[in-house]
């Protein structure tokens, strides 16, 4: 249950922040957002607030923000249609009823002659007295069909009606908010756990190692090696690894007292390379630093951004195969393992996943945010948008290929973890 809870919280946070970016920038641009969904597939829970339906759906494989105009949700009334209208105090239609299932008092019945529910917002038709009337439609009118209500979306409130910068930022904001979430997670770790100082302090001296034989002890602070000042653990590691078989003079501080040791690193194989080691372990000391926590959050965000890009490059160049990829099942199992090391390790895992989600969505692949951004770039270069049908076909093919990839990755995960 702890793993399930951790997975739900991490997955929910990653998807929520991603979709929140789309949602906020859509609202900022004046786009009507019809639905804000966490998860895919059948609806588990739905709450309507204002003009947006907020839902939680069954399958934990993503989420979406459904904006007016992105799907074929425009409502067209043809000549000869019989409809009902409810009017407000100004005489404007506040509800358009296409197939009446409810009984409304004071309803106006019309046989449509002409209508525009996108730009001019009017309905012209014949009433029950055969009089031709022209009814103005309110911008926030509701269209009811078979008992289902849909808020009218005037053209200027649709996604396609907005200028290129607004459309670009609405799509880009999703991945961008994943990077913001990662920054906040790493900053929170710095505030709660402390910011690593990376000082070259020996956490543990292993038995029968060159360091133990020389007299080094837990808690010793290395200040110099061969007369060169050492201020970080990385500098210590670099000096030792490059000096296998060579005696080194170490200067350390123990309880404020300076001590000197001569240690000869022994040869060891690590990650396929032969390096020098002296047999010490490291756990970075931490210090509480409010402002330093923000710097730490930024450093960790940039570090993982570069690291994930490096791994992505290895995948593209064939240095590891598709079998190394993980889907929801693999992420769940890894979350189970990571959770055993404590809340801060779990938070770091969530931050890394958030950056990974942001980067993956920025890849210029059809159906992903990056694919849509690619079409915006083409629009800017051409001076006009790409044909919607052609773009839609590209995204459709992309969705099919991504679903196929998801099936393959999930099957690999199931074989790896359960068989």
TrEMBL record:
Its main location: membrane. It is a multi-pass membrane protein. It holds the Pfam family Peptidase_M50. Its cofactor is Zn(2+). InterPro entries: PDZ, PDZ_6, PDZ_sf, Pept_M50_Zn, Peptidase_M50. Its EC number is 3.4.24.-. It is found in: Membrane. One of its GO terms (molecular function) is metal ion binding. One of its GO terms (cellular component) is membrane. Belongs to the peptidase M50B family. This is Zinc metalloprotease.
């Amino acid at each position: 249950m702890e793993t399930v809870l951790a997975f739900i919280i991490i997955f929910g946070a990653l998807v929520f922040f991603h979709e929140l970016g789309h949602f906020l920038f859509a609202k900022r641009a004046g786009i009507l957002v019809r639905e804000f969904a966490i998860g895919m597939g059948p609806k588990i829970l739905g709450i309507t607030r204002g003009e947006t339906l907020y839902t939680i759906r069954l399958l934990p494989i993503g989420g979406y923000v459904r904006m007016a105009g992105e799907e074929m949700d425009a409502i067209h009334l043809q000549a000869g249609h019989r409809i009902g209208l409810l009017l407000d105090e100004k005489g404007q239609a506040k509800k358009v009823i296409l197939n009446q299932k409810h009984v409304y008092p004071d309803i106006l019945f019309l046989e449509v002659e002409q209508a525009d529910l996108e730009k001019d917002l009017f309905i012209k038709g014949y009433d029950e007295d055969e009089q031709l009337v022209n009814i103005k439609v309110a911008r926030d009118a509701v269209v009811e069909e078979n008992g289902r209500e849909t808020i009218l979306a005037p053209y200027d409130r649709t996604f396609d009606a907005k200028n290129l910068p607004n459309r670009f930022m609405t799509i880009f904001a999703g991945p961008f908010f994943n990077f913001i979430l990662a920054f906040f997670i790493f900053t929170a770790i710095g505030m709660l756990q402390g910011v690593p100082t990376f000082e070259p302090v020996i956490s543990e001296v292993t038995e029968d190692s060159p360091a133990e034989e020389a007299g080094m002890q837990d808690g010793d602070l290395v200040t110099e090696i061969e007369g060169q000042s050492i201020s970080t653990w990385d500098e210590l590691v670099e000096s030792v690894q490059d000096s296998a078989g060579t005696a080194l003079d170490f200067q350390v501080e123990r309880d404020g007292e300076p001590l000197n040791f001569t240690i000869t690193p022994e040869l060891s194989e690590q990650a396929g390379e032969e390096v020098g080691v002296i047999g010490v372990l490291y756990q970075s000391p931490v210090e509480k630093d409010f402002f330093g926590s923000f710097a730490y959050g930024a450093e960790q965000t940039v570090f993982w951004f570069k690291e994930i890009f490096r791994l992505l490059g290895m995948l593209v160049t064939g240095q590891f195969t598709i079998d190394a990829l993980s889907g929801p099942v693999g992420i769940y199992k890894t979350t189970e393992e990571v959770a055993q090391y404590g809340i801060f390790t779990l938070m770091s895992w969530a931050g890394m996943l958030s950056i990974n989600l942001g980067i993956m969505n920025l890849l210029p692949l059809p159906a992903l945010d990056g694919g849509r951004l690619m079409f915006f770039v083409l629009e800017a270069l051409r001076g006009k948008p790409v044909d919607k049908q052609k773009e839609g076909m590209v995204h459709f093919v992309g969705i099919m290929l991504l679903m196929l990839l998801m099936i393959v990755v999930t099957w690999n995960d199931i074989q790896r973890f359960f068989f």
